[in-house]
User: What shape does this take?
Amino acid sequence: MRFLNGIFPAKCVICENLFVFEDQNLFCNLCLSTVKKEKIYYCNSCGDKVENCQKCLKKRVFDRIEIFKSNDRYITEILYYMKIKGFKNLSRTISQKIEEDITGFVKKKKIDLITYIPLDRKTYRKRTFNHLEEILREIFPSYIIDSVVEKTRETRLQMELNREERLKNLKGAFNLKKDIKGKKILIFDDIMTTGSTMFEMYKTIKKGNPERIYGYVIAR
Assistant: This one.
């Protein structure tokens, strides 16, 4: 197969260079190499792009949010092709990039359960999978991953909306469906822009009286 791929190489959708592919034929190794852990400055309670967040000095939100890297065209394209275009096999590509970092975070914080942003029923039927769940299942055993929150109504894609619209779009859209009392919960998401999705998930999870609520985001 690799021999044939060498004869008929793929064209990278980002840089348009030809490359010999193995697991996926969309992104070359050079572009993938840009997806790596970065030290970025943000509030580790709410995720805002400030180090000394004044509102979180008064009242913390998450016990801690960990962010893998800053958002750029490379990670945006990879997630777009998996999430919107339906290239499920990219879950392995993404998981390999974040595995060491997220597993270290889970061990350090002694996480009991990892959950993720749910899809409404119509969107799930259309996509046939939740990209966040697929990424997690490439990294962790199934017993630590659980969809404890359901999305009760359709909403517009957050990427299509401005800050004010994003805040309204998801308000009241989530419902807690499982017992999480006393557990240390990690909420997983791909890209944080305004933080509205993570905050709505936080508020929903908080109702279940967990011991701790953490967040992990691939890009900010």
Summary: Residues 1-33 form one domain. The first helix runs from residue 2 to 7. The two ends are 37 Å apart (CA to CA).
